[in-house]
Target: Beta-monoglucosyldiacylglycerol synthase
Amino acid sequence: MHNFSVVVLLISIIFGTYAYFNQPIEEPAWPNDIPGFAFSPYQKGQSPFLEKYPTPEQIDRDLELLSGKAHAIRTYTVDKVFAQIPQLAYKYKINLALGAWLDKDQARNTAEIERFIQLIEQPPYNIVRAIVGNEVLLREDLSPEQLIAVLQDVRAKTSVPVGTAEPWHVWIKHPELVDEVDFIAVHMLPFWEGIALEDSIEYIVDKMNLLRSTFPGKPIVITEVGWPSKGRAIKKAEASRANQAIFMRRFIQRAQQEKYIFYMMEAFDQPWKNRLEGSVGGHWGLYDVDRQLKFEQQTPIIALPEWRFLAAASALLAVAMIAFLLIDSGALRKRGRSFLAVLAFLISSLVIWMIYDYSSEYHNWVGVLVGILLLLGVVGVIVVILTEAHEWAEAIWYHQRRRPLIEVPVQQGVCPFVSIHVPAYNEPPEMMKETLLALSQLDYPCFEVLVIDNNTRDESVWRPVEDFCAELGERFRFYHVSPLSGFKAGALNYALQRTAEQAEIIAVIDSDYRVNPDWLKRMVGQFHEPNVAIVQAPQDYWDYSQNAFKAMCYAEYKGFFHIGMVTRNERNAIIQHGTMTMVRHRVLQAVGGWGETTITEDAELGLRIFEQGYAAVYSEHSFGKGVMPDTYIDYKKQRYRWAYGAMQILREHAGALLDWNKTQLKPGQRYHFFAGWLPWIADGFNYIFTVLAIIWTGLMLSDPVQYNAPDWMISIIPIVFFGFKMSKMLVLYMGHVGANLRTALAAAISGLALSHTIAKAVLWGLFVGRKMPFLRTPKLADSHNLWQALLDAYEEALMAAILLTAAVLLYWKFGFDTFEINLWFAVLLVQSIPYFASLMLSIISAIPNLRGDWVRFKSDLSNQ
Model:
């Protein structure tokens, strides 16, 4: 009942919001006819750049449509089929302000003018004005002297009034033109000047008064006046269908009062103009390219006539999302379900609006392809956000855990034998001695320890460990094997072959781990359930308080072990990690031992065991602690290995996860093995987006007309994704992990610092897939100096510098005049944050004495 009430409320909010923003706007009615339209009869798919022109029949149909709606039309050229327009217009009693196109091509200009004069001086004599050139001086195609010469020639050879069309400021700048024309043909397009809609009509009146006072007695004809229905904003001027309707209807009423002669810009949308004017170029028409009116001319204006359909589509999509998100939500409280429902409605509204907005554009095949890729990108981001939100809800708003850890003491007289395997390669002997000493103090009677040193060349490194094992007694066996293939998995399989026959459980710890004496005593009892094959405790670290770098990294690690693993455990889908793990011996042998085809053999083994229908048990309690990476480069190598290995697993187990190969995986397990690694995959594709963003910004700076700021739909995606990602981390860390704001921010910086590394690992692992060498994380390494720290993060520093430079150049070139520019500026800054975080963390790692006690958890305080 609660879910139903929330859905009904949200549907009401959606419809109410749409209705509020689409209230009818009363504006002056469109008259039966107007003085004229600017007329370009290009149809869909036609363009002068493609040399595809309208046919006489198509022009005739356009003129028929305008018949009775305007006294005249204004044209731009007499080339090719356009020379037939006067004859075709005569049929519908439409006069012409005939235009001749001039550009830098003098030979073409000469031919154009000859044809132009000929048409004026021959029947049917419906040409009432001659417009020689269109914005020639604005484009600087001709000098004022060259244009004046052409004007003088045409005036001498024709009997109709002659002018040339330029924006108002060009006439003010070149008053010498006025004496050479019979009328001033002026363009009044306040949109291009960034004038707000509310001020646009008075702006035109003001400029007309300026022209009248500057050139008294000279007739003035507005040969272009209008507003686009779609496209980028310019300063305060916003393009929309409603704004176009409001502008046109208001202007016509004022023009009648002021007795202006004008040609409305324009009769029909011209998509080919996008190449000249950017995204607004094709949307100036009263009719769209299919010759459909864009807005009502008599009734009140509704900003979005289709709002009911869009609201319904948003609601239906949201309900579908909610149904999917709440499939397995029995453990969620009402707040958690409400949170997911609200998020689904917000996302559905955004998606429907984006689809609607993009579909109202004019696209060629490239645009369609971009649209498909954009939609796929949006879907990908939405899937990541929804899975992250699902984890968010399950981490905070739950009634009780479905699979809480209930400690099972080992029964009296029952002592399952445990074989503990410690793989090592070139590890500091003193550190390993501490590890082995801790194992010797386990409060559990039935165990052995096998130390497998594989491929360490320096005998002075492994020999002391061998001697120490001998001192610890017969429970401890040491093997030095060289050569041994398979890296860590190879060493573990080697140990497996030499495990005591009576061993029921295989336990693995890393060579730097100091286990608690009660580890086996408290956890072995979980194997009393015959279906349990894995018992896992979290990784933990004893050296995290040594300095700020380790403290920050430790904060980032906490999220996985105390949020991600906990929620995954709810559906028996934990990631097995290769330390503090125990595996049932017979199951390990049955599935073929440790896999040597991936570099994350632990996670891959866990998935193979799940595929056979076995269960895992996870404890949040720490039973041992190791050492952390000492330098940023080692921190990166460790995460690169984890991310690359995850992609290897996805490739190798795709059939099982997608159910191509029948296994005993449950839907919840499949979900978590995809959803858990989706944020990493998103980092990979976000890197591609960042590279494309840099390229696009360069194109914008070099050719701002052809390459506009991307539509808000593109810009909003990375901003929303970043904002959601950071919000989730801060909320979960402060609300669930027991962190304060400083600690949560430290974890966020550490996580962001790995974005570039993860992105490279994901892209390489998904699309290249060649097996990479095992990247060992060195233990007790020396800290690097500052210069080395900068070198360790040089790729990230370079990307940060490029993005910041691009943002600065964008501001220098365009300022903050338009919404799209501001949004794209924000995108560049947001995309730079992970790269700056990498540089920051690398520098911090080079300062080993920098204190880290400001990174604190509640559990730290309670232990003091």
